[in-house]
From TrEMBL:
It comes from the Bacteria. This is GntR family transcriptional regulator. SUPFAM superfamilies: Chorismate lyase-like, Winged helix' DNA-binding domain. Keywords: DNA-binding, Transcription, Transcription regulation. Residues 9-77 form the HTH gntR-type domain. It comes from Sutcliffiella tianshenii. Pfam families: GntR, UTRA. NCBIfam families: C_P_lyase_phnF (TIGR02325). PANTHER family: MANNOSYL-D-GLYCERATE TRANSPORT/METABOLISM SYSTEM REPRESSOR MNGR-RELATED, MANNOSYL-D-GLYCERATE TRANSPORT_METABOLISM SYSTEM REPRESSOR MNGR-RELATED.
Length: 241
């Protein structure tokens, strides 16, 4: 029996675990619709409120999503991104057998604000590339990314290059060694504009990441602001003590 009313475990939690189990075993696949609140309530003789609580919890975890007027569906699996290695989006997706691409929103050379200049170790007003891209995996928008790089350091960057991989250009064409980065991760939600670009609802959970990357001699290479979809990403780090 799936629901045991005599169990000390709350009923909503039992239903939640049951649905989670079906997703993990593959009995429910991404895109599948799940039964309605009413159907669950009737099948297990429990209240619709309890069903709603279980489903809300799975929606909040990102395992299910609701579509107005058509029901509740199983989400795509999240990408588990290790935090240890310093990799590029292109490398990450290829490693997973997915096809990376970028939709270029902006490619400009602008004067550095004092914040950007400070982060990149250059003077206020020095020329920096400001590059805004939607990063896609198998044509699905995953993240929005804005990169700042000094124009005099990263010579010859072009629209064509940034639509492929910035890191491979820097390493293979400029011969620089990308060695280390600092990353800051914060929870945020999608603005109206971000939601439109990523094809997600406004206020959708997102992970905001600031990355400062450095070359082998310690020169700051890039300042990057990324916004990853919270329903498609989870970050993983191994810790020792
Ligand atoms: C990831 C990182 C960015 C980095 C980018 C380079 O997305 N979060 O900080 O700039 O990779 O990716 P690519 O070499 O594919 O342009």
């Amino acid at each position: 029996m799936i629901i045991n009313k005599n169990s000390p475990l709350p009923i909503y939690y039992q239903l939640e675990s049951h649905i989670k189990g079906l997703i993990e075993q593959g009995a429910l696949s991404p895109g599948d619709t799940i039964p309605s609140e009413r159907e669950y309530a009737e099948t297990y003789q429990i209240s619709r409120m309890t069903v709603r609580q279980a489903i809300n919890s799975l929606v909040n975890e990102g395992l299910l999503y609701r579509k107005k007027g058509s029901g509740t569906f199983v989400s795509e699996r999240k990408i588990e991104q290790p935090l240890q290695g310093l990799t590029s989006f292109t490398e990450d997706m290829k490693k997973r057998g997915m096809s990376p691409s970028s939709s270029l929103l902006q490619f400009e050379v602008v004067p550095a604000t004092s914040f950007i200049a400070n982060q990149l170790g250059i003077r206020d007003g020095d020329s920096v590339y400001e590059i805004k891209r939607i990063r896609l995996a198998d044509n699905v928008p995953m993240a929005l990314e804005t990169n700042y790089l000094s124009e005099s350091l990263v010579k010859g960057l072009s629209e064509e290059i940034v639509q492929a991989s910035i890191y491979s250009y820097i390493e293979e064409n400029l011969g620089f060694q990308i060695t280390r980065a600092d990353q800051l991760i914060e929870a945020t939600k999608a603005s109206k504009e971000e939601a439109k670009l990523l094809q997600i609802p406004k206020d959708h959970p997102m992970l905001f990441i600031q990355r400062n990357t450095y070359l082998s001699d310690g020169t700051p290479l890039e300042l990057v602001f990324s916004r990853y979809r919270g329903d498609r990403y989870k970050f993983f780090v191994e810790m020792e003590r």
